TrEMBL record:
Annotated localization: Cell membrane
Transmembrane segments: 7-28, 40-60, 72-98, 104-126, 138-160, 166-195
GO cellular component, one term: plasma membrane
Swiss-Prot/TrEMBL keywords: Cell membrane, Membrane, Transmembrane, Transmembrane helix, Transport
Keyword Cytoplasm: no
Organism field: Methanobrevibacter curvatus
PANTHER family, alphabetized: METAL TRANSPORT PROTEIN HI_1621-RELATED
Any one Gene Ontology BP term: transition metal ion transport
Protein's name in the database: Fused nickel transport protein NikMN
Length: 216
């Protein structure tokens, strides 16, 4: 799902960078109001885990790759897609600079796909379904759907850039990430279950209400 440098034109990169800058503005405001001495280490641990799972890439024709994401995990743990934006901006920047995985010019697009879309879709799905099917089934569905939709958005961006044929691009990304999404759903449920069992104080929905924070 990482888009490398040179795969999308600069005008398209500029649009995604504008989206990234706006997203980081709101994410930084969220961080000032919500991160504390417990949540900052948790975010760092999640970032390290996401770095690891995203390093396990499967090649996809025409130049991109398939892998697990983790946007839903971060967004649900903190009940905020802003957390995913911060984590993925740092992780993707390090991967691009040090390991050549993804690209600097494509950073905005990659954060859009994995954090803004991935985290947002996963969190909204979780919130929309948890009262009907239960918390953990909603987490699993949210993680799967976020992985699949993020991959399809990546394919659409590559199609607009002229790098993917329409049908092959959507099909290749969709089928592979539909299977990857199953693994991601299971891992997301396991991680959140373990956190709730052993460190429930780290989950946003178990924290006491603050004046600027919603608790579900």
């Amino acid at each position: 799902m990482h888009i490398p440098d040179g795969f999308i034109p600069y005008w398209q990169c500029a649009i995604y960078y504008v989206i990234l800058i706006i997203a980081l503005y709101f994410a930084s405001r969220w961080a000032r109001n919500n991160l504390d001495e417990k949540r900052i280490p948790l975010m760092a641990v999640l970032a390290a885990g996401i770095f690891a799972i995203m390093s396990m890439n499967l090649p996809i024709p025409f130049g991109t790759s398939g892998h697990m994401v983790g946007g839903t995990l971060v967004a649900i743990v903190f009940l905020a897609p802003e957390a995913a934006i911060l984590v993925f901006t740092v992780v993707l920047l390090i991967q691009a600079l040090l390991f050549g995985d993804g690209g600097i010019t494509a950073l905005g697009a990659n954060v859009l796909n994995m954090a803004i879309i991935g985290g947002g879709v996963g969190l909204l799905t979780f919130k929309g379904l948890k009262n009907f099917i239960g918390k953990y089934p909603a987490i699993g569905i949210g993680a799967w759907l976020a992985t699949f939709i993020s991959a399809e958005f990546c394919a659409i961006e590559m199609i607009i850039a002229g790098k993917f044929p329409l049908i092959i691009g959507l099909t290749s990304m969709g089928i592979l990430h539909a299977f990857i999404g199953i693994i991601e759903a299971v891992l997301t449920v396991i991680v959140i279950y373990v956190l709730e069992k052993y460190r429930p104080d780290l989950l946003a929905w178990n924290r006491k209400r603050k004046s600027n924070e919603l608790v579900i």
